[in-house]
Fold each of these.
Amino acid sequence: MNDWVSAKAEEPLMRRRVFLGSSSGLGAIALSSLLGSNAFGAERSPPASRVGGLPDCPHFAPKAKRVIYLFQSGAPSQMDLFDPKPGLANQRGSELPDSIRKGQRLTGMTSRQASFPVAPTKFKFAQHGESGAWVSELLPHTAKMADNIAFIRSMHTEAINHDPAVTFFQTGNQLAGRPSMGAWVNYGLGTESTDLPAFVAMISSGLSDQPLYDRLWGSGFLPSKYQGIKFRSVGDPVLYLSNPDGLDAGTRRRMLDDLKTLNNIKLGQYQDPEIATRIEQYEMAYRMQTSVPELTDLSREPAHIFKLYGPDSKKPGTYAYNCLLARRLAERGVRFIQLFHRGWDQHTSLPKNIASQCRDVDQPSAALLADLKQRGMLDDTLVIWGGEFGRTVYCQGTLTADDYGRDHHPRCFTIWMAGGGIKPGVTWGETDEYSYNIVKDPVHIHDLHATMLHCLGVDHTRLTYKFQGRYYRLTDVHGNVVKGILA
């Protein structure tokens, strides 16, 4: 006992650090708390081919290994694309009945309108495939894939303006600061790739450039190693990927080795998980110097693939190019791939602008499904397409014979899902005759997230993280799996 006291008196700080950092000390206890109850002596280990993830995930056999989320930022009009209301053809210009609007809130852009005239779509709809799904003439390529798709017409949200609505879709909460859905998936399931990030985000633009913030693919209060990596369309796909002039690969490697040694010293002293994240990020960046140029080199893609995705598929930064890159990322084991396409915010001149947007996204979206299917990958890849809310049946601004605009509408809108775990050829949910209210099978954002996680083999109520004394999850305290669309 006296020897121990003497040693403690001589080296109090070192002894305390050893205790905090040892496998049996408080550092281990804290780490166990961060990783969950199965961190030590876990019941089962992650698959050998997987990098990262929680020991107890997936919770059950998954149908999907990965997610490709095609987010249409700005809110596509469901009435002009997927939710036909032929009965409105004879009501053009008539006032939206109070019995339909029910005093529901309006945005500041239409709240002062004296009139809310009904604006039926000017585009034709037809049924497609054996499923008989209704799809607008604006989406002929998507229509050909209708039997592979589940259309959800009864999505609804709580946010009525873009930023909180997009944030809600990405994080499960309207306020900034929560982890994005890709970060949650990365945290729970890890990745099958050692040379590429587990979570990649890409942005393309249509007619307008509403802001999209890095926090939308961020890690929130999760350790930063779970955040998404943004691929750029100009210069290096990832910032600082190339060595500076005069620095060769050998020098870079020696520099990283020395930096890793220094970081490991600090990690041993402070046990800060962000230091471990920094070490991992440097190593990943080094490996990406080889993997990313190979990934983005499309020269070996055959001509019929470029024809499938359309004429823009050779142009970096376009939606078509990003869809093709998403397939290549999926092939290489990336767990969560998110494409953001801006330009759907059509308050005015909707017929002209939505036609342009559809030309951007229709063929590449359908091509991605077809490409995955022909490679045998659609069965274990979940593909999701949709925006943050819908559009109003009434016209914003002046209604003319050929033109109309639509305001934001959170009460009902349409998204589609396809691939791993989803029943193909399904149309789920119904709206009223004005596509204004849901009358059957409503699906909330938390329900969508719960269903997405279910397809990945994750029970959304069990994927949690303790922060500031509370256990958080992507679905907050809500969410039900939409069993009617599951295969």
Amino acid sequence: MHAADLLTHRSRLTPQREALLELETGRRFSYADLNGRACRVANFMASLGVQAGDRVSILAHNSVAYLDLFYGLAKIGAIFTPLNWRLTADELSYIVGDCTPKVMLVGAEFAGVWAEMRRSVEVEHLVSLDGADIAGGLGYEDGLAAASPAEPARPALDGQSPYCILYTSGTTGKPKGAVLPHRQILWNCINTVVSWGLSERDVTPVLTPLFHAGGLFAFLTPLLYAGGRIILAKSFDAEQSLRVIQQERCTVILGVPTLFQLWLDAPGFAAADFSAVHFFISGGAPLPVPLVEAWRARQPVVFRQGYGLTEVGPNCFSMTDAESLRKTGSVGKPVIHSQMRLIDPATGLDVPVGETGELLIQGPHVCSGYWQNPAATAQALRDGWFHTGDMARVDDEGFYTIAGRFKDMIISGGENIYAAEVEKVFRDHPAVQDAALIGLPDPKWGEVGLMAVVLKAGQTAGEDELRQFCAGRLARYKVPKQVAFIDALPVSPYGKVLKAELRARDWKSPG
């Protein structure tokens, strides 16, 4: 079963229901409007020679064009391959050279970046968005207007047919293109709607980039599947988004820890009316418990933490409202159509309840591998299980807690130290805004911990004070040997700390 007809069928069921508000332009689109645009873009791309299996890329801020392409390309079997506009021209050129799109759409803000990229990449067709000054580029809206709104003929498609390629952040090397098949798109919708209790009555703002799995799949595609309503922002603005959440009576809100901190610090936060909101959920990076507690202290809200990956979808666990309070720090239980294992990476055997192991995931929501990278595919997908590289533990009630990346684990004197556990303790200190643990080589212990700390504005704390704060909270071997104070942690677009950048810095030896 493929996913090319998801929007077609939804528009048949509820054609006049509002599906999308595009904040930048103020335009509102019904389901019939969206499907008509998707059909037009499918026929527009077909007129450029795009066929099943061809890639089409977009380099632009959020707009309705993303939805046009996401749903329209699927109708003709082409593969949606959005680009991370936060990357440099060199980084983007590598990705374009890897996925070789037949058509490239470029937004006005990125005409300069594309001019740099053109020196090293070639694309058969260029399309200009929002009047972008692109030499030889076709106008996007002109192309849509000239194309037929009729449903295009479907090529032979099934659940394994590639739907889109999303490139990973490349924190440990060159980005890899995760190939998301049609079955993954469909089952992410089913898992999310069923496990999280979503319905046609739900409204959500999409405030995160649509080149990322979180922007596309956390709420946008599941809610359009269920018949709900999307509020699409071009980019994030704390005060504007707080107003929109209230004005549009949004019911489910996704953010990353950085956004939740910005909201908390915004002047309008304390007086905001969140009475329509069922729950807030944080994803993309570990959520500091003090941040959750600060929210709950100032607003009577339900606050959950999620977990997912590009390769398996952003919504792998769920919990009830009551459990989100009782199990703060946990990501919940596996969604309904999914299986999980925790193994010892050294032996491949399952670990006992309460012990930390590598998280493995199996189900129809798992990707089919990496684009033109059989070695990486074979490493990640083994015997039907996707090896996430994340360490986690499960308690006797079945609730999972993420302990951090396997590569973030420090082995000091033969003892395993999980970065997330130590970072949580540091964030509990009232003066600490954020913290990230890395390992430094040590002749005696093999590795020792260095904690990079960002202090809250106007707060002070010394190295000895923070290390002493760990006493009684952590075993002695887990306490970092060194604490370094920095202005800000390097982070990815989704708030993940780029520890490779931290490790590359010239730190003084703790010895």
Amino acid sequence: MEPFSSDWISFIITGLGTLFLLGEVLVNMKGFFGLLGFGFITVYFLSFLEPGTFILMMVIYLIGLLLIIIDGKLLNDGTLAVIGAVCMVLSVGLSSPNWTAGLYAVIGVVIGGACSLMFLKVFKRRDMWTKLALVDQLTEDKGYSTMNVSYSELVGKQAVTMTDMRPVGTIKVDGAEYSAVSNGQWIPKDSVVKITQVDGTKILVTVK
């Protein structure tokens, strides 16, 4: 394929590709967003690269996306997600014919990824990030009563972090240790936190 006539088109192509690919990860669109995103990214790489290099950069980009998915489904500590984002940015940046197009492409990935979060407000979300954000709460006012009595008594109490919370970690309250989540915040060890919410045996804390 012929390269784009204007460098700024790289921003559009990589932005839309990342928007729809991450959108497919976040919301349940039955593969439609995934196909759109894959199509845009394929057009971008094919426009600048020979077949051999095209495959390499496409693999790096998709590995980055896979790392984000693994982090969301299994780890929830953000480490693999950051590595994945770096892979995606490097793949599009190094594939561009000049630094201007590369800069546009990198900005497209960043903005496309950020804008994909808007899909959560419109479409049915996937159950990837519930452990991190405590989204699916089963509360008594909704007809559920899953909260352990001893855990429910922790709400409002002060605790100390026994490990770094990134965002999952261990806290100590009243001489007992519990697993807790900080709702996305990174909180260092030995910090004083407050238990603000309990859902079953999931404990949410914030910096006091």
